[in-house]
Design brief:
The structure is a single chain. With 388 residues, the protein is of the alpha+beta class. It has a single domain, classed as Cytochrome p450, CATH 1.10.630. Strands 1-2-10-7-3 form a five-stranded mixed sheet. Helix 4 packs antiparallel against helix 5, helix 6 packs antiparallel against helix 7 and helix 7 crosses helix 9. It is globular. It starts with 15 loop residues before the first helix and ends with a strand. 45% of the residues are buried. The protein binds protoporphyrin IX containing FE (HEM). The site of protoporphyrin IX containing FE has 24 residues, from helix 9 and helix 13.
């Protein structure tokens, strides 16, 4: 077997044997077809995440074939000192209290969506649970009304597509970005005129040594939060649902002892990472495993593979909720570590606690399921689920 990395591998039912081949045989892989270097070993991925001076997020962005109009404007596509300034202000606005304040809403929504699902019996997990749950929570955080959020949803979905641009035509992701930007620009205008008790207002007001985020930064940062929050959580939730349905013993174990939910979510993030990889760009030539990765090339730090590296995790292919998962890279590492991690975790713990509480067993219909096809994320855009 010899593997050339293709962006579509991410949407295969089981891409993990291919990642293993790359780790063992070509850990600094260059895919000419996709014009991307791929680092698949834990140690290399982790070192790169922690060394932003060598591995820049700002030169070409952090998504595969990132859009030039995003680069340098979103948190994920900045390097220090700009990143430190923006992240510091975002941290001031998005605090542990933000998550704590949202918890009552998270809990009541998780409970009502779960009992509605139980009453229905057979549901489509994304449309019936994940999308309304994420929309309501992220909407509440930013003061976006639920009905607007559902309207924004298809732009959020399109945002991560990476279509080739046709001459003279906008791609779907450019159209999505334009609509989201216009919508958020109007919302910022309203909050500037009259503040509310929401994250948008908190970001507008956050200040460091007399400096604020610019209006453009507030709009683009909010956009990143919405797309990052909406897509990542959906992918995490669908992967966790899939993992539970595929491992009936695990389902019984976690249901019998809900104290295990935290461990289940963490091991789920390791075992089948929702964010499978982010891009970095070397600020100078880097020699790794006998190859020279040229300055300014696009390099994918493969989280999905690193999390299954047996050099780091014993029996890495086994879903084992008893293992020590502290070092998994499912939420990144270093200065760009996921800013939404406390919220994402809180939502996942609460949702699965409620869902497990209302059902005895689950079956998913994989034949009718559809996988997400964006090149950085792995999960389902449609997942039929029967609760009994
Ligand atoms: C629950 C599932 C989630 C997963 C698996 C996830 C994963 C990640 C990962 C791997 C990164 C690092 C990106 C990089 O290094 O280039 C990241 C960054 C980020 N995430 Fe999340 N995320 C999740 C939820 C959220 C939520 C709920 C929000 C917002 C409410 C969010 C907002 C962000 C932002 C703004 C960044 C950029 C941080 C920076 O560059 O300083 N994420 N996320």
């Amino acid at each position: 077997m010899s593997i050339t990395y293709q962006l579509s591998i991410i949407a295969e039912d089981d891409p993990y044997p291919k990642y293993k081949w790359l780790r063992d045989n070509d850990p600094a892989h260059y895919s000419e077809r996709e014009n991307v270097w791929v680092l698949t070993r834990y140690e290399d991925v982790s070192n790169a995440f922690r060394d932003w001076k060598t591995w820049s997020s700002n030169r070409r962005g952090n998504l595969l074939n990132d859009m030039p109009e995003r680069v340098g404007k979103t948190l994920g596509t900045m390097d220090p000192p700009d990143h430190a300034f923006a992240r510091g202000l975002v941290n001031k606005a998005f605090t542990p209290k933000t998550v704590a304040d949202l918890h009552t809403k998270v809990k009541s929504l998780a409970a009502s969506l779960s009992s509605a699902a139980r009453a229905k019996g057979t549901i489509e997990f994304v449309a019936d649970i994940s999308a309304p749950f994420n929309a309501a929570i992220l909407g509440a955080m930013f003061g976006v009304p639920d009905e607007d959020f559902i309207r924004l949803r298809h732009w959020l979905d399109d945002f991560f597509l990476r279509e080739e641009a046709q001459p003279g035509e906008e791609t779907k992701q450019q159209i999505a970005m334009r609509h989201l930007r216009n919508y958020l620009d109007e919302l910022v205008e309203k909050r500037l005129a009259q503040g509310e008790d929401d994250l948008l207002t908190a970001m507008i007001r956050a200040e460091e040594d007399g400096r604020h985020l610019s209006r453009e930064q507030v709009v683009v940062t909010t956009m990143t939060f919405l797309v990052a929050g909406f897509e990542s959580t959906n992918n995490l939730f669908t992967n966790l649902t899939h993992a539970l349905a595929r491992h009936p013993n695990l389902y019984r174990q976690v249901k019998a002892n809900t104290d295990l939910i935290g461990a289940f979510v963490e091991e789920g993030m390791r075992w089948d990472a929702a964010a499978q990889g982010f891009v970095r760009t070397p600020s100078h030539d880097v020699t790794l495993h006998g190859k020279v990765i040229p300055e300014d090339s696009q390099v994918l730090l493969h989280i999905g593979s690193a999390n299954r590296d047996e050099r780091q995790f014993e029996n890495a292919d086994v879903f084992d909720i008893r293992r020590d998962t502290k070092r998994h890279l499912g939420m990144g590492q270093g200065i760009h570590f996921c800013v939404g991690a406390p919220l994402g975790r809180n939502m996942a713990y609460t949702l699965f606690e409620e869902l497990l509480g209302v059902s005895e067993n689950w079956q998913i219909d994989l034949a009718q399921a559809t996988r997400v096809t964006t090149p950085n994320f792995r999960g389902f855009s449609r997942l039929p689920l029967r609760l009994a």
